[in-house]
Amino acid sequence: MTSPRTHATIHSVKLDDTPTANLSANPAERLVDAIALPIGRWNREARLLFCNAPYCRWAGRPSDELVGRTLEDLYGPEAWAVASSRFAAAFEGRTVHYERRLTHQGASARWTRAMVFPDRNAEGEIDAIYTIAFDIHDDVIEREALHAAQKRLDRFTEHIPYPLTYIDRDGVLRFVNRAYAQAVGMAAADLLGQPIDQARGAAQWAQHQPFFERALAGEAAQYTRLVDKLPLGPRWLRTSYVPDFGDDGRVQGAYTVTIDVHDLTEAQQRLQRSVERDGLTDALTRRTMMERLDAACMTCATQPVALFFVDLDGFKALNDARGHAAGDAMLVALAQALQGAVRAEDAVGRFGGDEFLVLAGVRDAAGAHVLASHLLEAVQACAVRCPGTQPVSASIGYALAPNDATQPLGLLQLADHAMYAAKRSGKNRAMHCAGLD
Predict the structure, then answer these.
(1) Which residue from 312, 290, 293, 316 is spatially nearest to 394, judged by alpha carbons?
(2) Pairing mode, if any, of strands 429-432 and 393-401?
């Protein structure tokens, strides 16, 4: 259809003062009709000289209502406003395209791409142009939907209050949203294209890098930490690193999202503390102490420990004389005194009632004896700090691991037996289980 011979055959159907419909006897014209695309031929006045059968169906009119009329007559000023510059370009020898949504098809109007190209005669002169229309409605609708989705995504990522980034495999920042730029106090333009360790500082990135590397290995990872120097003061933040898998299954980079988990973390800590700590004395609970004892016995071969069983003497008399409020105050003061008598890494727990356990690392039996004396003194000093109370002392029994026992329950029973032996021996004293008959 594009050879000079074909062109000459098609436009040899001459139009006199009254244009006639397209004849279908010519083989070239039948070929054009067989092409399932609307094809039209136009002169310099933008009048339709020829159209094939698909064009008639596309226009919704027979050929005798189309041929001889201008594009503006057929489809209106708006259609001509879009097409006019393309027609001019085709008469200058160029092939051009344009898109528009048809108006002549009413409610079923569809998007079309029109290709406009010159029709040269045997001498190479352009005395007409061709148009071919392609239905691109589904493509345009899909493109518009994708564009709209992208705009929504852009608005979402830009306005979401959580910092978002994308870091490629080489550790280079390829995307940051507004919240991230505000959080780090830098402009997005100064961050994009920069290695993350340079943009955020090597020391700070070193804390995040292990989680980024886990994402590059294909595993999602989270990093929770307490961040200072924030507008609302120190806050717990959690950054999630999510791998970005390419079509080939390889990880191309990692997405990060940082959220404020301050309230949640504090609630979890309060819950954990309520499980680990006695509600009255803030000493460790019996359950937690047994867990600590289990762990200590597993390593006692290289890290010897002593377990002290502390039971108050005269506590019932104090409760009877001054009431339970005074007794509770004494227990709180006692827990604080015991904690003050040992190191921070040692454990003080309330076993029940007025019974306490102390688990501490020691070198040998001599060291355990010295610590037992300190604990007795702490109890006596505690009673002095609680004026108006009845004299209170403590009976303490203790056992060592691994010297006396290596199993948690065995160690606890030995310390308990030693404590009762101290009571039978006159109270207000400490006894080692090894000295019992």
Answers:
(1) 312
(2) parallel
Estimate to the nearest angstrom the gap between the alpha carbon of 233 and the chain centroid. Answer: 23
> Which tokens sit at 9?
């055959």
- Architecture (CATH level 2) of domain 4-139: 2-Layer Sandwich (3.30)
User: What does the pLDDT read at residue 274?
Assistant: 63
**Which residue, among 105, 104, 102, has the nearest Cα to 140 in the 3D structure?**
102
Provide the residue count of the chain: 437
Give Cβ neighbours of residue 291 (< 8 Å, ≥ 6 apart). Answer: none
Domain spans in the chain, listed from the N-terminal domain onward: 4-139, 160-264, 277-435
Task: Evaluate whether 239 touches 257 at the Cβ level (below 8 Å).
Answer: yes
Alpha-helical (H) ranges within 135-187 are 137-159, 178-184
Whether 4-139 and 160-264 share one fold: the answer is yes
Strand 173-176 to 96-101 pairing: unpaired
Over the stretch 218-250, which tens digit does the pLDDT of each residue have? 999 998 888 887 666 788 888 999 999 988 999
55-60 long-range contacts (CB < 8 A, ≥24 apart) are: 55/133, 58/133, 59/104, 60/104, 60/105
Please name the fold of domain 277-435.
Alpha-Beta Plaits (3.30.70)
User: What's 160-264's CATH class?
Assistant: alpha beta
> What pTM was computed for the model?
0.46
